[in-house]
Amino acid sequence: MKLVLFCFVILAVVSTSIYSQELTISSREIASLCGRINQIKELPHDRSEKGIDKTYDRLREAGTAVVPCLINNITKIEIMKDPRCPGISNATTVGDVSYFVLVDILDHLIEDFLPSDVQNAFKTNGVYAYHEYIDRPGARGELKKRLRFWYAEHREKRSSNGSIRSTFQ
Questions:
Q1: Which residues have a Cβ under 8 Å from the Cβ of 83 and sit 6 or more positions away?
Q2: Global pTM?
Q3: Which of 55, 73, 139, 155 has the most CB atoms at less than 10 Å from its CB?
């Protein structure tokens, strides 16, 4: 019995460490993944849930390696089917979905990177506050700039202490 329990504990530890590791991914594959955002058909309700959408799963597995290209995608205004269930908008863009995937990868809330007035509006309007904000002239560029600044700041911290998870929180 002790041997079975010991084996189970070892298996659980190994599985957890393998799952938490990010993939080593080439720049070509990163570009390919970011170019397939419009192929995401459904976002999971729980960001840790796997098997809902292969493209989303692959982006999540790639982890922080795809963060820079997701940030660059924020300004893409190509309309796509809203992959949220239920759909919220008929005007969802590749930039919107890139942002949703980005915050999932970074384990942040949608409102975390938005201006404070939008964060306050989020309390009463929910995700509609995001859409009201992002439709403002220049908002996509502003969000992209904000994310680039945040990423550069956290990447430097990551480089100095070697940890990914702790600095991207």
A1: 40, 41, 42, 43, 53, 56, 92, 97
A2: 0.78
A3: 73
